[in-house]
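Lay summary. Proteins are chains of building blocks that fold into shapes, and those shapes determine what they do. In this project we predict the shape from the chain. Here is one chain we studied, written as its sequence of building blocks.
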Amino acid sequence: MARKFALMWWTVTSSKTKLRVGRLVKAHGLKGALKLELYTDSPDQRFRAGQELELQVPETSEWFGKTVKVAELRFYNQSPVLFLEGIQDRSQAETLVKAILLIETYLEQLPEDPEAWYDHQLVGLTALVGEEVVGKVIRVDHLPAQDLLAIETSNGEVLVPFVKQIVPSVDIQKGQVVLTPPVGLFEINLPGGDSDEN
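And here is the predicted shape, written in a compact code that computers can read:
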């Protein structure tokens, strides 16, 4: 079973952070709508009418440094389509294609789902295999097939699939993740792990 969590963009300001909640994929129809790739499990909350969204776009984009407001989120054949205030036609919508949508939230705010975490809550957690500390989480990689925890160990970086079978416990309060990795993944970091090599 894959873990679920919201994605986090890199910007952290005081007690707040910017979260990536979606990406505008392509223009939809002639009235300014855009197909949306969701990066959140709470689209109705993140894309409610009037919600202001920051844009991650290249510096050369006319939208650099600007924000947009949600007019409406609709679903067509289960695919999300976003309408934005002031975007009235297809040509305007096309200028926003590939833009990443960001919201600002408090660092300490937890997702409602107990099996969901923001990236910034995972980064820095101590990684344990049994009782042994094997390293720290330094980032979360989001791949199409699955998400990976990047663990910095004394012997370099190890990528761990972020699935329930391998990461059975995440304890934000204790500041740790418990891992049950496949044989060989972390043994070199454990006492005596390389003792059979002469």
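What the prediction tells us: The domain at 12-106 is CATH 2.40.30.60 (Elongation Factor Tu (Ef-tu); domain 3).
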